[in-house]
Amino acid sequence: MKKISYKCKICNSTYNKWSGKCETCGSWNSLIEDMGLSNGPKGKTLGSQRGEIIPLKNIATEEKAPSRILSKISELDRVLGGGLVNASAVLVGGDPGIGKSTLLLQAAVRFSQNGLKTIYISGEEAESQIRMRAHRLKLNSKTLQLGTETNLRNILTTLEVEKPGLAIIDSIQTLWADNIDSAPGSISQVRAACHELVIFAKKNNVAIILVGHVTKDGQLAGPRVVEHMVDTVLYFEGDREHQFRIIRSVKNRYGAADEIGVFEMTGGGLMEVLNPSAFFLSERENPVPGSSVFAGIEGTRPLLVEIQALVAPSTLASPRRTVVGLDSNRLSMILAVLEARCNISLSGMDVYLNVAGGLKIKEPAADLAIAAALISAINETPIKKETVIFGEISLSGAIRATAQADIRLKEAQKLGFNFALAPSAIKIRDIPKMQIVKYSNLNTFALAQAKYKEAKIKEEQL
Q: Helix 442-461 and helix 367-379: axis angle, to 10°?
């Protein structure tokens, strides 16, 4: 009889019996049944066979770059780090209906058309349904192979016989291993299925793309160990009310993390957006109070987005702080610095902050653009339309330098921006036709904006 143990899904501590609380990390209801992935040969103990050891000095110093397979979908290839790597495992997650299956079906057709033997295996749709979707997207490939299966053993047997270069599994939550006594989609099943598929990919030089469901918090469902097993983790972001979709790399052993690819959802499927900055600013109107343009960096790509702020008197005891696309804690910090260092009080005001287009920004360099939008909303004075802003704000009110300032400004110049507000500590080369005004602290910046307001009032009076 196989011995059953219990493992904490938070810290991976192992126990012989179940309990409500993990004694190691203190988490409640975190212990799950651990049946084990495979049994070793009977009669042998751990460490009975010596593994191969290679001295570090004997390893060739010339590192061979991993071979890559291009899908010819440039935004997807960018996020993968320049293409799909042989024998790699990629996990793709996203909300239901966001477009994961659509993109992967388009990618599967492209890979197969480029000469890579590709198998698309679905555990959620029938073959006729996949064919209908392909017909709607006007995808026609005589080389792409389809399969509908949920039994892990049958899938591995099929892949071993067919020997494809790429296998796409949609989705990992539908698979079940017959040696695990739990329902499909459970933590044990997901972990076992992912482990076996990753081992198969490494041994047989097959690239595997797995689709994963997400929880209400937007995290990939199942144990976090699944993210550690694979080589690349991609998240699909976007709002179904907007036409754009963003695929973001949060882990990549063969490329840059936090790289993004931008797509537009159309009736014919997902179309690439080759100039995201122009796309996000395309609906920007004439300058209005509370609007600023942030020159950001996502992975290796410069990206310009509009940050919108609205400040209104509050009738509530606790004024609202509504944030979309930014960290709410970051807004609270900036509001505190404005009050403490610049004597700008917003304690009795409702504050609404939004990133236009629904993009999510995590970069601290957006602090100065956020502060500029808030000051513009308070002063009811628009910022010049051709102005880009970036810089990190410290608790002392100092505006700190940010990396890759040259790339940010060159991207802004390409889109017709000729004026920039930036930290004084940045070191940049001369950029022709670009006027750069540098600030060392937020109080100086706020005073300059107040003088700009006075100048605008005098200009209107004249």
A: 40
